[in-house]
Every structure is written in structure tokens, then in C-alpha cells.
From TrEMBL:
The keyword Transmembrane helix applies. It comes from Planococcus shenhongbingii. Pfam families: ABC_membrane (PF00664), ABC_tran (PF00005). Keywords: ATP-binding, Membrane, Nucleotide-binding, Transmembrane, Transmembrane helix. This is Thiol reductant ABC exporter subunit CydC. The gene is cydC.
């Protein structure tokens, strides 16, 4: 039950609705039992008396109890569902507040399909906590205890039989089937997560699968996962039906015991025969209410697993963010003996990196693929934490800066830039919500996208744009940001050299006194950079101006010669 502690806490935040729902649920249960008891008493009384007044009063009581039961059941549903929906809303907010600081690092551990299954499926399944797990035992317990108290005035033995039936149907049988359900439900959730993951990959990779003629094989794999999930669901359904049957059988046996014991007491003269039908009808009525408890094990295990899977995601270690903002003064950047290794990797991505990037400088970081260039940028964005060493921006240690306050002062273009379904306007307003259409059109013209207007449609993930158009649109978005620190990771890798040169000219014209950090594998046009950093295998192997490192005829010179031989 400890796994559901947070869900219980969020549910009890709506204590008013919960308390009202329990009250009306109890009232509906008691009214239903009273209705059946009155019916039994009326039948017996009608057979033994000719007083019409008593029969009229009992008939009126039947109508009253029926009306109270119906109205109370409606009120119970209203308040219990309102509490449930509010709890779900609070749960989603709480979960995303915990999840947000973990992104984007969380994607290194969990696949997107698995995360989607947890965020949507597991959260939705917790709607049953209030209605199927927390609420039924409380209401049934109150109804049973009240019924047992009432029955004890007529026969203590019959009250004990009802008590024994209550313990069996509310505690013992559900506990046994909860234990059995735990094994089945684990397999169901594993199958659902696997199916969701494979379906997501199938949709994202559909084009490549089609090109490489692997679509049928992937479809067969997806069918296997689907059938496995359906098989596990079938087992879960059969187990739930079996539990309901056993619980109903135990409830029926308890009512038969009440009937048999009552008949014995009547024949022995220990119970007035007038009350036998009433006590039997009461037991039937209260045991009819145990149906929700038959489904309790399945819902309990489902909720417990859902809570565990959600907790697994948000209990990842979170770095405590700083609270400082980037100073307004000129922004210089310094790395001092910085090292970083990705989790579960042996080879360090960065090793003892030390460099100085003065304010207003233009620095290019070059090197072969896998040399650590993009990792260095991720550390500078404070997305990844350095294992050792110190990074400072504007004289402030990076760990003391609040990430969002830091990002607010940056113009960032990454290798993979996301574009949302909508228009060019909606995607540009992400960078500057106050930008006018004229400013957007100017930014688009600077990156040679004059053919686009702010009203041009953009499909999900920018699927209707070419690779070069995506990069130029991302640069236009950064231009609209208008800050003084530029971090550009392969910003023009999909653009031809002439267009790339023109875009760099526009960038440097707009940010004459800004600080630029540009990661690139393209070595052309670096003559205008103030500093060039050459990296290889996570280390800086050369640094200096273009003329200085060319004179050394080292790594950079060798890379230039290779480039010349390829494009000669």
C-alpha cells in the first residue's frame, strides 16, 4: 500500500468531496438494506395481521427508502467522480512538475513509447483508485457494521454470521485474489509497455522501413507484441471473473447460513418468526453490495503497478538548480579541467577540457564526429552535469545559475530542432512572443526563406520542410530571440556553402558584439573566427586563430588538406 501513498494523499486533498461521497454511499447502502428489510417484514406482517394501518405505513416506508436510495446513489456518484477527476488533474500537474527537471536526460534511460505508456496509460488507470480501491471498502465496512449492529438486536448468532461473511467477502477473498493478480498484472503492464514502444518506433520509422523493405517484418513483430498483450489481457479478465464468481458464491453461502440458522432459531423458539424474512432479506441486500470488492484485487494491483511505474520515472536523481540569473555584464565563458562520461559508458566524452571564450568573441569548435563537440555544448547549456571541473559564464559558476534564467539569455540552434504543428508564425513566436509579422519576415529574409510567410503551414516535426529549411527556420527563430550569447551546433550542415556563408554574414552583422560558439564539421569560412578549437577523442588538441593553427600544420591543417582533396 505504500506505493499508493502519494495517490492517497492527492485523493484526500479533496476531503470534502470524498467525505460527502462516503456519506451518500453509506446512506444509499443503508437505505437499500432498509428497503429489503422492510419488504421482508411487510411480507411477514401481512401474513399475520389484518391491520391495514400498519401495512400502509410499511408501504410508505418502502417508497421512502427506495427514494432515499436512488437520490443518495446519484449524489454518491456525483461527488465521488468529481473527487476522482480533481485527483487526476492534481496527479498530472504533480507528475509533470517532477518530470520537467529530468528532461531531456530522461530520454537516455526510457524510450519514448514507454514514457508515453506511463504518462497516458498509467495516469489514466489511476482514475479507478478512488472509485474501485479506496472508496468501496470504506462504504461497505460502514454498511456492514451498521447492519450487524441492527441484526444483533434480534439474534447475536445471525449477526456473527453476517460478520464472518463480511470478513470473507471484503478482506479474505479479495486479499487472496490480489496476491494472485499481482503476477498476472505485472505481465500485462510489461506487454502493454512493449507494444506501445514498438508501435511508436513503427510510426516514427515507417519511411525508413518502407525504403529498406523491412515493413512486413516489423509488422509481424508488432503483431506478435499485440497478440501477447491480448493474451495477457485475456488471462487478467478470466482471473477477475473467477474472483467475482468466488466472492458471489461466498456471499450466497452467507445468506443461506442466515436463512438456515434463522429457521433453526424460529423452530427452537429463540427467534420470532416475524423477523426471519427481514433478517434474510437484510443479509441478501448487504451481500449484493460486495460486487465491487470482487473487482478490487484487479484494480488494486493495476493502481499499485501504475503508481510504481510513475514513481520510477520521477525518482531519478535531480540536480538542485541554482537561483542566479546571468549577469548583464559582458558574457565570457571559461572551462577549467572539465570531464564528462555518459552513464554506463567507459570512454569519457570529455577529458580535462580547459578553454577561455572572451566576451564578444567568435569561437568555432571543430573535429571529427564523436570528438565531444556536441557534448561540450550540452554541458554549456547545463543540460548535462560535468563529472569534474568547473564551467563559468559571466564569472558565475554554471551550477549556481538557474537553467531557465540561463536559457533565456541564449540564442540556441541545435542539430535536431523541433517544430510544432501549426504555422511559421506559431513556431517563431516560441522565441519571442512579442515579435511582429514584419520582424518575422525580416528574420526569414536573412536566412533566405523569403518564399515563406508567417502563415505558411508547418506539419508535425516540420515534416513538410527540407533539412536545410528546418535549419534556416531554427536560425531565424534564434535571431528573433535577440540575446547576446549564441550557441550553434552544426547550424548550416544541410545548407550549401554559398547560402551558409551568407547566413553567417547575417548572423555576425546582427550580433557584432555578441559571443558566438559555433560547432561545425565544415571547415570552410573559418578565417573570420577569432578562435578555433580542434577536438579529438574528447580532448582539445589545438587552439588558436586560423592563421596560428594553420602555421602549426597539425590536426586542423591535416583536416583542411583532406577537405581540399575531397572537393578538389
Amino acid at each position: 500500500m505504500k506505493e499508493l501513498k502519494q495517490i492517497l494523499t492527492l485523493t484526500l486533498h479533496e476531503k470534502r468531496d470524498v467525505a460527502i461521497a462516503i456519506f451518500f454511499g453509506f446512506l444509499a447502502g443503508i437505505a437499500g438494506a432498509a428497503l429489503m428489510a422492510s419488504s421482508g417484514y411487510l411480507i411477514s406482517k401481512a401474513a399475520l395481521t389484518s391491520q391495514i394501518t400498519i401495512l400502509i405505513v410499511m408501504g410508505a416506508c418502502l417508497k421512502l427508502f427506495g427514494l432515499v436510495s436512488a437520490l443518495s446513489r446519484y449524489a454518491e456518484r456525483l461527488f465521488s467522480h468529481r473527487a476522482t477527476f480533481t485527483m487526476l488533474s492534481n496527479l498530472r500537474v504533480s507528475f509533470f512538475e517532477k518530470l520537467s527537471p529530468l528532461a531531456p536526460g530522461i530520454f537516455q534511460k526510457y524510450r519514448s513509447g514507454d514514457l508515453l505508456a506511463r504518462i497516458v496509460g498509467d495516469v489514466e488507470s489511476l482514475q479507478n483508485f478512488m472509485l474501485r480501491v479506496f472508496y468501496p471498502p470504506v462504504v461497505l465496512g460502514l454498511v456492514f457494521l451498521s447492519t450487524i449492529f441492527f441484526a444483533s438486536f434480534f439474534s447475536l448468532a445471525i449477526a456473527m454470521v453476517i460478520l464472518a461473511g463480511m470478513l470473507l467477502t471484503i478482506v479474505v477473498v479479495p486479499a487472496i485474489f490480489a496476491w494472485r493478480q499481482r503476477r498476472i498484472d505485472s505481465a500485462v503492464r510489461t506487454s502493454r509497455a512493449a507494444l506501445s514502444t514498438e508501435a511508436t518506433e513503427f510510426l516514427f520509422g515507417f519511411r525508413d522501413l518502407k525504403i529498406y523493405q523491412q515493413l512486413e517484418r516489423k509488422e509481424r513483430d508488432l503483431t506478435v507484441f499485440s497478440e501477447r498483450y491480448a493474451e495477457q489481457q485475456q488471462k487478467e479478465g478470466l482471473e477477475e471473473n473467477f474472483g467475482q464468481s468466488v466472492n458471489a458464491f461466498v456471499a450466497l453461502l452467507a445468506s443461506f447460513f442466515v436463512l438456515g440458522l434463522g429457521a433453526y432459531f424460529v423452530s427452537a423458539g429463540e427467534l420470532d418468526g416475524l423477523y426471519l424474512a427481514m433478517l434474510v432479506m437484510v443479509s441478501i441486500a448487504v451481500f449484493e453490495n460486495v460486487a465491487p470488492m470482487a473487482a478490487f484485487p484487479a484494480h488494486f494491483e493495476e493502481n499499485r503497478k501504475a503508481a510504481v511505474r510513475l514513481e520510477q520515472v520521477v525518482t531519478e536523481p535531480v540536480r538542485k538548480p541554482g537561483d542566479l540569473a546571468l549577469p548583464v555584464k559582458p558574457i565570457e565563458i571559461a572551462f577549467e579541467n572539465v570531464s564528462f562520461t555518459y552513464p554506463e559508458e567507459e570512454r569519457p566524452a570529455l577529458s580535462n577540457i580547459s578553454l577561455q571564450l572572451p566576451s564578444g568573441s567568435k569561437t568555432a569548435i571543430v573535429g571529427p564526429s564523436g570528438s565531444g563537440k556536441s557534448t561540450l555544448l550540452q554541458l554549456l547549456l547545463n543540460v548535462l552535469p560535468a563529472d569534474s571541473g568547473m564551467i563559468s559564464i559571466g564569472g558565475e559558476p554554471l551550477e549556481k545559475l538557474h537553467p531557465e534564467k540561463l536559457w533565456r539569455r541564449m540564442n540556441v540552434v541545435l542539430q535536431e530542432n523541433h517544430f510544432f504543428f501549426g504555422t511559421i508564425r506559431s513556431n517563431l513566436l516560441i522565441a519571442n512572443e512579442n515579435a511582429t509579422d514584419e520582424e518575422m519576415e525580416t528574420a526569414l529574409a536573412r536566412v533566405q526563406l523569403s518564399a515563406f510567410s508567417p502563415d505558411t503551414k508547418v506539419n508535425e516535426k516540420g515534416e513538410n520542410l527540407s533539412g536545410g529549411e528546418k535549419q534556416r527556420l531554427a536560425i531565424a527563430r534564434a535571431m528573433l530571440r535577440g540575446e547576446t550569447l549564441w550557441l550553434l551546433d552544426e547550424p548550416v550542415s544541410s545548407v550549401d556553402s554559398i547560402t551558409a556563408k551568407d547566413i553567417y554574414s547575417q548572423l555576425f552583422e546582427q550580433g557584432k558584439d555578441d559571443t558566438f560558439v559555433i560547432i561545425s564539421h565544415d571547415l570552410t569560412g573559418l578565417e573570420q573566427m577569432d578562435q578555433i578549437i580542434v577536438m579529438e577523442q574528447g580532448q582539445i588538441v589545438e587552439a588558436g586563430t586560423y592563421e596560428e593553427i594553420m602555421e602549426k600544420q597539425g590536426h586542423f591543417f591535416a583536416l583542411k588538406q583532406i577537405e581540399k582533396s575531397i572537393f578538389a
